[in-house]
Design brief:
Blueprint (H helix, E strand, L loop, with lengths): L1 H26 L2 H9 L3 H11 L1 H30 L3 H30 L1 H18 L1 H17 L10 H14 L4 H12 L10 E2 L6 E2 L4 H11 L3 E5 L6 E6 H8 L14 E4 L4 H11 L3 E5 L5 E6 H9 L13 E5 L2 E5 L4 H7 L13 H9 L8 E4 L2 E9 L2 E9 L4 H15 L1
Parallel strand pairs: 2-3, 5-6
Antiparallel strand pairs: 1-7, 3-4, 6-7, 8-9, 9-12, 10-11, 11-12
């Protein structure tokens, strides 16, 4: 009897060891373990080597865990059979007792402890599990061939890896768990979504371009640099549809301001891009050519706007303000469901900020264009329209373009829906 009890206790301890090892090996921080391994920690090196063959490792753990659990159950049956004359009652008592013991001490408790300190337990477990890994290798190889056969028989043809939506869901879960903060999460999500952006989503429209004529005198050029605060300005010949180069502030003042050198001699080359060009491709092109600005053309070859390297970077890290920029809050919350929004604000960003997700993106890039599209004409102050659960009122115009709008979220809240549901139930009664 004593021998049976000792075997059961040892098996439960080993079951807990295997369960904790499985959890630790699947959740440890690889960077921390790799750092320890590089410093010469032998156990850390073993952990990395075992984790690189994760399928074989899991097979080793499962074989060991099942052996000790079955052995514990067998010893438990023999133990209770010797203590209880009624065999049916003995089998039931053995099953219940061993099930509870293995669940508490062989599964739940060790896995919880290993999850709280996965690196420490992985380092502790490495030597013993490595021995079992070698001893049980013939069996794990057999199971590996069986796994390969099953994988071949039930292979999915439509398996295309992890989607962008799944990656973003993982980031959001990490935010909720506290692994990363909101700012870090937004940065990662912006980087993930970066590949979907086109130049037309981020460019500065033609009406907002500050440019210089090739015939501008140096006093006018200096004044334009001073008033705009820009360090690079496009230079055109005849009209803005013929941009011939980019004039840099530094080049102008160091090479041409007090010298007879014409500005055409110091302008940098310009590249033309279409609105549909992916932003990541443009960034690579600008980096390769050591340029900071590109001219965006429409389908007719006319200048539609410009896009800068700063515009591209802002899509990842957010707005970048320097000492010359006037800080503009494009979306300003004035109450729980009311916002003052700039007409220059990106429509898709606005809808995303307000948690409005639609299958098709809006055709208009800016809020101003969205309002013109919805109203079917050039807006006027006081015009109102409703779209996508939002009430939009034009507050201020700048010529033919909207400066600011007031947006009210008129979608019913969860509380409103619950009250409406309760009222409908009462009417039925």
């Amino acid at each position: 009897m004593t021998t049976q009890i000792i075997i059961i206790v040892v098996c439960i301890i080993l079951s807990g060891y295997f369960s904790a090892t499985e959890t630790a090996m699947s959740t440890f921080n690889r960077i921390r373990i790799k750092t320890l391994a590089e410093k010469g920690n032998k156990n850390a090196q073993t952990v990395l080597r075992l984790s690189d063959n994760y399928d074989t490792l899991i097979s080793t753990i499962l074989i060991g865990n099942n052996i000790v659990n079955i052995l514990a159950s067998s010893m438990g049956t023999l133990l209770f059979a010797s203590l209880i004359a009624n065999q049916d009652l003995a089998a039931t008592a053995s099953t219940v007792t061993l099930t509870v013991a293995i669940l508490v001490f062989g599964e739940i408790s060790p896995k919880t402890m290993a999850k709280n300190s996965p690196e420490s337990f992985a380092l502790f477990s490495a030597p013993m599990i490595n021995v079992l890994y070698i001893v049980l290798k013939p069996f794990t190889l057999l199971f590996k061939h069986w796994q390969n056969l099953l994988a071949h028989l039930f292979k999915k043809d439509d398996d295309q890896g992890m989607t962008e939506e799944e990656l973003i869901s993982i980031i959001e879960e990490a935010e909720e768990d506290g692994g990363i903060d909101e700012e870090e999460g937004n940065l990662i999500k912006s980087a993930i979504e970066f590949g979907d952006l086109e130049v037309g989503d981020i460019f500065t429209p033609r009406i907002d371009i500050t440019a210089l004529s090739i015939n501008a005198d140096k006093t006018e050029i200096a004044k334009t640099f001073a008033e705009s605060g820009y360090s690079r300005i496009p230079v055109y010949e005849d009209d803005l549809d013929n941009v011939i180069g980019i004039l840099y502030y530094k080049d102008f003042y160091t090479k041409a301001y007090n010298k007879p050198l014409p500005i055409t001699a110091i302008t940098k080359p310009v590249i033309y891009v279409a609105k549909t060009q992916p932003v990541n491709e443009l960034m690579k092109e600008l980096q390769e050519k050591q340029l900071h600005m590109a001219v965006v053309t429409d389908e007719f070859g006319s200048t539609a706007g410009i896009v800068t390297l700063e515009d591209i970077l802002e899509e990842i890290v957010g707005e970048i303000w320097d000492e010359h920029d006037e800080i503009i809050e494009e979306i300003k919350e004035i109450s729980e469901k009311e916002y003052i929004v700039s007409g220059k604000a990106n429509t898709d960003k606005l809808l995303s900020t307000l948690d409005i997700y639609v299958e098709e993106e809006t055709e208009s890039v800016t809020v101003s264009g969205w309002a013109m599209e919805a109203l079917g004409r050039i807006p006027e102050v006081g015009d109102v329209f409703e779209d996508r659960g939002l009430r939009v009122e034009v507050l201020e115009m700048d010529g033919r373009r909207i400066e600011n709008v007031r947006i009210t979220d008129i979608r019913p809240s969860d509380d409103d829906e619950d009250e409406e549901h309760d009222d409908s139930d009462s009417d039925k009664d």
